[in-house]
């Protein structure tokens, strides 16, 4: 595409908008030149930044929509196609081959393009000024829910895409609920309205009933002649209709005012007027300011200026509760509806400063990041007073934090090496800054900072608070790590305790429930395969690798069969590892049935030519036991580990006095002991499955376990590991090790006719417990009663193709949902079975509920 054509496309769209804005003269301010291909880095203003994600059920059209967004913003010169594997955001070969998104890709685009700027004016829509949109594409498959969660926590807003034929699907509900939990403001795009069977009205009703928010219909579909081809949208905010040229790239849009529609399509005009009235009414229920405006205009909903409506929509969604859901319409694949959706991102979704203070934790202390930075969070004294003595007073240690960032994604880019995507929450990460990793306790230098624009990267000097950027060349940082820039500290020990353990927005990694053995083709390949696996783990912390102590076998575990299959593809096809992955099997767990005695071990060996001596005591028991407040407690993989370090008594220590040296702070001792215990818990004594639901109590008593400079972190880890293994052996000997299996929460969507066979199959053949059978109609009432809204009042234009049978379209189709708890073992291969039971229409999602003890024949069958 030529520069001129690009520029025309951008101007054409915004000219339409200007025609319908309050300021018709703003057209004259359009710029004469485009800066689109300028190599200058645009410095984004925080108020004009949007960190948004696209969430949806698999195949709803996230990637297709993203590709259009990149194209219209000028980042790409042609539209990528999911079906021929030429998209920008699905860039892993494994993703391209399957046409699904696995890793969330983040790209930065400007909307409207930088060329389309106009002077600021409070009454001009935000979308008339270029905004920096950091777009995070999230995966839709249930196996990758964790990946979705991980990206959700760094978002300030989200666009939820629905398939206009399938309506609200199970995965959408799940992600929607998660977005509620993280209070993420959202707008909704009903996509695929060009497809046969598209049902906008039914979808809107489902939004009300299943997503439990009030649908605020901002756009309605425009079907040619009322029943023909999907050609554009009626716009209830701006009181106009937009028609896209058939077969074009979506830049040629014709706009019709309400007056012009009298001739063009009078029934659409009527419907837009109805939609405007319904929209104003809905907003007035939630927003008093609009109610006042409405009264000022003598209850004339058509007279309210569009900007008042936009401001009201914004106020209604900004708390992220999802109580009101602005709805837009389109068909991305036909290039219809994407530019107004981008405008809605600018106009309705919040900038980073409008979001709540991000949550932080420092050990057991929790609070907001700005609270911490303002010295309002009380940082408690640590058990070891000697460490505290060395630390500066708390306000001054906090004031030195230069930047705090969350690494939300690690990607291996074939051209640029390892890229770590970060969101900066405070301060600014500058090129070459030393970054302390609060999870790994290492310092790394941010040698290169980049901004990703489609598949291009631009070098930038810093990444400031509120922005998303990429750090290239880090050797250790993993997805989920917190990075801190703290000038002038010891690079080995990092910022003073407890700041060195600060976690931004921590999330729990769900337990892996499947595993497979990885076999390198030869001994010489082992190291290379292990390195590649480490790389995969940096990218995706929901994958786990354990090396079996006895057989030396590498076991890779993950959250679903597809999750492991994709990991295998990455390993073998992308990284060219010479290895084979064995069968995917269920990952059972082992548990301790009664407490063991205390096992003490003193590790005393040379490791890599360096002497290492350290002691430790361990006992293990079922998890129920309560702990004393003094203990340091961590939870790992469903087990808890407590560490007790009694007061140091200098003269009683076996060697070198009892005072701990500065380079062995208490947090390093704790981390080393935890690592040792975690390693021991990874392999149970009975069947080599990981331990679950167990509690390890470790004691490190410096008066007998500390041996001066010979006590290294490695020696501490080994002492803890061997002491825990001793306790586990005792449990096995006394017959106190049980087996546990993963039990899943399963939600199946099917139609009324197949409900009976599905329920029967679940409860008789699969040993499941059916928890509920929801009929959408019934669910409607209960959900909406909670909102105190009559479902009949939800406005949606009638579907032209739906009601040939005369069915009541106010009640969504007779879709049913079965919720059940079923052992994972019985769910292997279930999709195929469900398809045969439902003629291919049934779908299901599942997630781990918990691990349950196995007894009797089920235990024997493992
Ligand atoms: N008819 C029609 N097909 C569409 C539309 N949008 C997307 N599709 C098709 O739907 C399929 C799925 O689209 P994607 O964009 O890959 O969906 P996704 O939500 O990114 O899927 P995952 O990455 O697997 O989560 C592809 O075959 C698209 O061509 C649309 O507006 N109309």
Please describe what this structure looks like.
The chain is 29% helix and 27% strand. The chain is α+β, with helices and mostly antiparallel strands. Helix 6 crosses helix 21 and helix 8 crosses helix 9. The protein is globular and about 90 Å long. The N and C termini lie far apart (61 Å). The protein binds guanosine-5'-triphosphate.
What's the quick description here?
Pfam families: EF-G_D2, EFG_C, EFG_III, GTP_EFTU. The chain has 862 residues and is an alpha+beta fold.
Percentage of residues in helical conformation: 25-40%
Under CATH at level 1, the class of the largest domain stands as: Alpha Beta
Main sheet, how many strands, which sense, barrel?
Answer: 9 strands, antiparallel
By CATH, the architecture of the largest domain is named 3-Layer(aba) Sandwich
Low-confidence stretches: 1-12, 16-40, 96-104, 381-392, 649-657, 776-786, 803-813
Structural class label:
alpha+beta
Total count of strands: 38
Instruction: Kindly report the average pLDDT value.
Output: 82
Rg from Cα? 29 Å
CATH topology of the largest domain: Rossmann fold
Family: Belongs to the TRAFAC class translation factor GTPase superfamily. Classic translation factor GTPase family. EF-G/EF-2 subfamily.
Keywords: GTP-binding, Mitochondrion, Nucleotide-binding, Protein biosynthesis
GO molecular function: GTP binding; GTPase activity
Subcellular location: Mitochondrion
């Amino acid at each position: 595409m030529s520069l001129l054509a690009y520029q025309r496309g951008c101007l054409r769209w915004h000219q339409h908008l200007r025609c319908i804005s309050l300021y018709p003269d703003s057209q004259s301010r359009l710029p004469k030149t485009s800066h689109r291909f300028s190599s200058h880095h645009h410095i984004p203003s925080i108020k004009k930044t949007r960190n948004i994600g696209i969430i949806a059920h698999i195949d709803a059209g996230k990637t297709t929509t993203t590709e259009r967004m990149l194209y219209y913003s000028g980042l790409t010169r042609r539209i990528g196609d999911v079906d021929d594997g030429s998209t920008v955001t699905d860039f892993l070969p494994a993703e391209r081959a399957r046409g699904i998104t696995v890793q969330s890709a983040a790209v930065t685009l400007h909307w409207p393009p930088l060329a389309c700027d106009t002077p600021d004016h409070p009454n001009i829509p935000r979308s008339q000024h270029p905004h920096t949109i950091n777009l995070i594409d999230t995966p839709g498959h249930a196996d990758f829910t964790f990946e979705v969660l991980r990206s959700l926590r760094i978002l300030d807003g989200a666009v939820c895409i629905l398939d206009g034929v399938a309506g609200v699907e199970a995965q959408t509900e799940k992600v929607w609920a998660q977005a509620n939990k993280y209070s993420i403001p959202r707008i909704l795009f009903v996509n695929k309205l060009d497809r046969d069977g598209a049902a906008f009205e039914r979808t809107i009703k489902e939004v009300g009933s299943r997503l439990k928010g009030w649908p605020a219909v901002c756009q309605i579909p425009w079907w040619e002649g009322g029943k023909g081809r999907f050609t554009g949208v009626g716009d209830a905010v701006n009181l106009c209709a937009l028609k896209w040229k058939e077969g074009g790239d979506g830049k040629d849009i014709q706009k019709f005012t309400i007056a012009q529609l009298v001739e063009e399509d009078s029934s659409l005009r009527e419907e837009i007027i109805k939609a405007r009235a319904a929209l104003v009414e809905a907003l007035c229920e939630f927003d008093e300011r609009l109610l006042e405006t409405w009264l000022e205009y003598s209850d004339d909903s058509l007279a309210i200026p569009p900007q008042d409506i936009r401001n009201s929509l914004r106020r209604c969604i900004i708390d992220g509760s999802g109580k009101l859901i602005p709805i837009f319409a389109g068909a991305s694949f036909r290039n219809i509806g994407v530019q107004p959706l981008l405008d809605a991102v600018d106009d309705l979704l919040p900038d980073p400063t409008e979001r709540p203070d991000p949550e932080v934790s420092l050990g057991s202390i929790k609070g907001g990041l700005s609270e911490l930075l303002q010295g309002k969070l009380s940082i408690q004294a640590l058990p070891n007073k000697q460490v505290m003595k060395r630390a500066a007073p708390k306000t001054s240690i906090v004031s030195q934090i230069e930047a705090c960032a969350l690494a939300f994604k690690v990607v291996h880019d074939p051209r640029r090496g390892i890229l770590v995507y970060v969101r900066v929450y405070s301060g600014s990460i500058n090129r070459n800054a030393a970054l302390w990793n609060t999870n790994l306790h290492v310092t790394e230098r941010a040698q290169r900072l980049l901004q990703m624009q489609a598949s291009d990267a631009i070098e930038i000097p810093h990444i400031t608070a509120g922005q998303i950027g990429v750090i290239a060349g880090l050797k250790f940082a993993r997805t989920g790590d917190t990075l801190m820039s703290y000038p002038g500290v010891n690079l080995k020990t990092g910022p003073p305790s407890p700041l060195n353990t600060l976690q931004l927005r921590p999330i729990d990694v769900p337990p892996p429930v499947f595993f497979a053995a990885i076999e390198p083709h030869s001994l010489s390949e082992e190291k290379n395969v292990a390195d590649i696996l480490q790389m995969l783990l940096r990218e995706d912390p929901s994958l786990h690798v354990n090396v079996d102590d006895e057989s030396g076998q590498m076991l890779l575990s993950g959250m679903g069969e597809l999750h492991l299959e994709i990991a295998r593809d990455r390993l073998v096809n992308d990284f060219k590892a010479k290895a084979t992955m064995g069968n995917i099997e269920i990952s059972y767990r082992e548990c301790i049935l009664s407490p063991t005695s205390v096992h003490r071990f003193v590790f005393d060996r040379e490791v890599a030519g360096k002497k290492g001596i350290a002691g430790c005591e361990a006992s293990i028991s079922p998890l129920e036991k309560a702990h004393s407040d003094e203990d340091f407690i961590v939870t790992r993989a469903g087990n808890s580990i407590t560490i007790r370090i009694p007061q140091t008594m200098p003269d009683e220590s076996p060697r070198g006095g009892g005072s701990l040296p500065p380079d062995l702070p208490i947090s390093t001792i704790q981390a080393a002991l935890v690592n040792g215990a975690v390693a021991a818990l990874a392999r149970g004594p009975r069947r080599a499955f990981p331990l679950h639901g167990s509690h390890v109590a470790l004691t490190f008593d410096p008066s007998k376990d500390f041996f001066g400079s010979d006590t290294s972190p490695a020696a501490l880890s080994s002492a803890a590991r061997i002491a825990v293994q001793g306790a586990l052996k005792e449990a096995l000997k006394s017959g106190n090790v049980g087996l546990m299996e993963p039990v899943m929460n399963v939600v199946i969507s099917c139609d009324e006719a197949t409900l009976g066979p599905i329920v029967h199959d679940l409860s008789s053949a699969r040993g499941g417990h059916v928890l509920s059978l929801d009929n959408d109609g019934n669910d409607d009432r209960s959900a909406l009663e909670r909102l105190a809204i009559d479902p009949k009042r939800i406005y949606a234009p009638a579907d032209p193709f739906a009601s040939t049978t005369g069915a009541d379209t106010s009640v969504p189709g007779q879709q049913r949902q079965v919720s059940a708890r079923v052992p994972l073992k019985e769910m292997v291969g279930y999709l195929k079975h469900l398809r045969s039971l439902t003629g291919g229409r049934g779908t299901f999602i599942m997630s781990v509920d918990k691990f349950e003890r196995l007894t009797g024949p089920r235990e024997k069958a493992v």
